[in-house]
Amino acid sequence: MDTFGLIQLAELIYEYCGIDFYKNLSSLEAKISERLKELGLSCWEYGGYLRVEPKEWDTLIELITVNETYFFREENLLEEFRKVILPQYKDRTPNNPLRIWCSACSSGEEPYTLAILSEETGLFEAGAIEIIASDIDKKVLEKATRGLYNKKSFSFRTMPKEMLDKYFVLFGEDYKVKDSIRAKVNFRRLNLLEENISEKIGKVDIIFCRNVLIYFDKKAIDKVISSLCDTLKVGGYLFLGHAETITGMNTGFETIYAPSTFYYRKGEKR
């Protein structure tokens, strides 16, 4: 193991996107070993390569990020979103749409799920909901934008059959998200450690940031949560993964407990 080169690379990755490999260098080595062989570079040389070839970051991010996701993930939380949260915004119109930010959307299963659930409520006219879906990984965003998922994919592991039949069409060996649902989602590339995220996204009513903070250390978490808070309107809701919590942090969020799930609401003061 090229420990010194790996430490240098871990530092570059942390500075770029906040993912912390300092305590798991062997995992980082396993993720990049084939790419290093392909380029004929040592780990130390690869750090220099990233500096002179910034487009290589797209490849590296694809290698080191975990894009494990599927439709209708965490049913209890989604039921709360559908039955309790969405009705609070039923008066929204195309001139004042409900804006939802899915801040680490991976290959698109989550934002499409949110779009389906909003459609199922029957509360919103066309154009009254805008879902912004962002991710740092360029390749998964391309897949998300296409809205194509293989019929045998794990993406459908918890997909109710009636939803599959209603909102997808057969497309060869794939299922394709119907255009009416795809039209609700706007995909864009975004690094959560960027500056001025609230200006780039604009104020939103609801944020989903699930299973992201587990890859960050406290410093990066503080920065990300600060950006989310700045982007979220007062009274807006934040949904994290079931293994993530910001309770006890001085974030300006209050914790809301519901049966079998919990989430957060932005208060008046931080």
UniProtKB/TrEMBL annotation:
Superkingdom in the source lineage: Bacteria
Gene Ontology molecular function, alphabetical: protein-glutamate O-methyltransferase activity
Enzyme class: transferase
Keywords from the UniProt entry: Methyltransferase, S-adenosyl-L-methionine, Transferase
Location of the CheR-type methyltransferase domain: 1-269
The protein's name: protein-glutamate O-methyltransferase
EC code: 2.1.1.80
Catalysed transformations (reactions): L-glutamyl-[protein] + S-adenosyl-L-methionine = [protein]-L-glutamate 5-O-methyl ester + S-adenosyl-L-homocysteine
SMART domains: MeTrc (SM00138)
